[in-house]
Amino acid sequence: MADKKSDLLQGTLDMLILKTVALGPIHGYGISLRIQQISEEVLQVQQGSLYPALHRLEHRGWLTSQWGESDNGRMAKFYQLTPLGETQLKAESENWTRLSNAVSLIMALEGGSK
Prior knowledge:
By secondary structure, the protein is of the alpha+beta class. The protein has helices at 12-22, 28-38, 47-59, 83-107; strands at residues 26-27, 63-69, 75-81.
């Protein structure tokens, strides 16, 4: 059977990171693991996409970070949502709901290939 893992749609990574960080302070690798686990292994965020996105979100003021010790005793950068990030997450969530509802309407149309 073909591999069922999906690439993230362009523009959704920021929203997924913000939502994941909204659950509590977490380091980069933890963000990747949490997205993979919650999506039941469908979504995987590669380091080459994750860390530039984290830097971008921090630069925009949506995340803040500080160094701390991870569960395995290593130093890691832990990310936390800012008030501006909470506002952005709300806007992104509303937009995603509107978009996914629109796609569902189109996919529910009768007909198709036979």
